[in-house]
Structures are given as structure tokens and as C-alpha cells.
Amino acid sequence: MNDLLTLIKDQDAAGTPPPADVEAQQPAPEEQAERESMDAFFKEVAAIKALMSDVRRSQTRLADAHQQTKMVTRSAEVHDLREKMQAEIASVSKSAEAIKKRLAELDRGNEAALKKGLMAPGSSAERTRTAMTGALKKKLKDLMGEFQDLRARVSAEYRETVERRVYTVTGQRATEAEVEELIDTGESETIYKKAMLETGKGYVLDTLAEIRERHDAVMELERSLMELHQIFLDMAVLVEAQGEMIDNIEAQVARSVDRVQAGTTHLQGAKQHQRSKRKWLLCAIIASILIIIIVVLVVVGVVRGFK
């Protein structure tokens, strides 16, 4: 017995912690499941944000490469920039497909969490999920608009570049029909036959090769941007549906706030009425006591008068 007490004292002196309260440390199974569900949601949101950042960086590099194409004059340089732009478009398309897939999974996860009871309808968890999903889709919609702007800018500036290169070679402004022919086919027999006679075959052929390369680059970029735009259009349906859902939730929240405010006002009125009722009851009791005292004094006075 003494040895046992000595052992216990030694453990206390060594700072051995008491046995942990397992039940106090372990959350309820429902809370644990909800927490794990939200952790998985936030992890997925972070992954989608990272993909969107990749798309944004690729878009910036794509715009920079397009700016460079306006300054180069050799077909080899245009070709190198063309390959660089196509690589960026391929990267964006890959990221866009991944974003599309993950957003769909995010929506399915939100629905599953409701069905499994991991969050209640209208709860803070549901509002958080819906708001963050909607914010991601809004950001995606903004990216869609920026790529559309880039596509329009590439088309407009390509026309300007063609007109400028023709003027450089021939010294004359090309007609609208000649510019359209160059844009559609990458070459114009009328313009370059005349230029060859006036400035020399070698220089004209180099310029023609450059314009053909530029034409192929723009057509390829246009085709790739259209394919990318189709991916974005598929996701636009999700964006619009999410917008309606957010509007409905905001309306529900507003109605809940109104109900809470109305309930608070009613409760305050009830408390005021209760305080007023207590006040009148107290006054009535005091008045009754005073009346009793007066009656007693009158009776005592009458009795003394008879004596």
C-alpha cells in the first residue's frame, strides 16, 4: 500500500497529466460530420480559385504575346509568337474544363449536404456555401467577358496590321475589298503582283510570308478562343442559375430579419404592457391599504367617542 502511494506521489511530482476526459474532447458525430463537410468544401473552393488564377495569368501572357505580334515584321517571329499563344490557349482550355467540372461537383456537394442533413435549409452553413459558390461563378463570368474582349481586340487590330503592312510594301492604301481578301485568305494577287514589279520580288515575298503566317495565327487563335468561349457558355448556365438561387436566399434572409424584428417589437410591447400592468396592480394594492387604514382609524375614533 505504501509503495502504491509512493508511486502515485512520484507521478504527481513528475507532472503526469490526469486521464483525459474523452467524452468532453470528442464532438458529437453530427458536428464532426458537418465540420468535415465544410472543410472539404473550403478545400474545393481553394482549388478552384487556384485554377482561376492560372487562367488569369495565361490571359495576361496571351494579351502580351498579341501585343508583340503587332511589332514584329518577320514570318519566323510571327510563327514563334503564334505557337506561344496557342500554348497559352491550350493551358486556359485545360484549366477551364477543370473549373467547369469542379463547379459542378461543388453544386452536387451542396445538394448532398442538404439531403444528408449536414446543414439545415437557410442555415449559416448553407448561406456560406451558396454565397461562396456564387462568388466563384461571378468571377468566372468576369473572366468570360475579358476573353471576349480580347477576341474582339485581336480581330480589330489584325485588320489594322494588314493595312499597315500593305502600305509599307506598296506605298498605297489598300481598298476595302483588298483588305478583306487578305484577311480571308492571307494573300492578294493583285496587290503583290504590282508590288513585285515596283519594289522587287524578294522583299515582297518576305512580306507575303509574314502576312500569311499572321493570317494563320489569327485564324487559329480565333478558332481556339471560340472553343474556349463555348466552354464558358456551358458554365454560364450554372452562373445564371446560381444568381437566381442567391437572390432567393437573400430574399429568405430578408424575410427572416423582418420576422425577427417584428417579433422583437412585439416582445418589447408585451414587456411594456406587463410592466404597466404591474405598476397599476401595485398602485391598487397601496390604495387598498390606505383605505383600510383610514377605515380602521375612523372606527377607532367612533369607538372612543362612545366611551
UniProtKB/TrEMBL annotation:
Q: Does the keyword Acyltransferase apply?
A: no
Q: Which SUPFAM superfamilies does this UniProt record tie to the protein?
A: t-snare proteins (SSF47661)
Q: Where is the T-SNARE coiled-coil homology domain?
A: 208-270
InterPro entries xrefs: SNARE (IPR010989), Syntaxin (IPR045242), Syntaxin/epimorphin_CS (IPR006012), Syntaxin_N (IPR006011), T_SNARE_dom (IPR000727)
For region Disordered, the annotated ranges are: 1-37
GO terms (molecular function) for this protein are: SNAP receptor activity; SNARE binding
Task: List the GO cellular component terms.
Answer: endomembrane system; plasma membrane; SNARE complex
The way it spans or sits in the membrane comes to: Single-pass type IV membrane protein
UniProt feature, compositional bias: Low complexity? 21-30
According to the record, the segments passing through the membrane are 280-303
Q: Does the keyword Protein transport apply?
A: yes
> Mind telling me what this protein is named?
t-SNARE coiled-coil homology domain-containing protein
Q: Which domain of life is it from?
A: Eukaryota
Q: Which GO terms describe its biological process?
A: exocytosis; intracellular protein transport; vesicle docking; vesicle fusion
Using the UniProt record, give the first listed, main subcellular location.
membrane
Q: State the family it belongs to.
A: Belongs to the syntaxin family.
* Compartments it resides in: Membrane
Which sequence ranges form a coiled-coil region, renumbered to this chain? 82-116
Keywords carried by this UniProt record: Coiled coil, Membrane, Protein transport, Transmembrane, Transmembrane helix, Transport
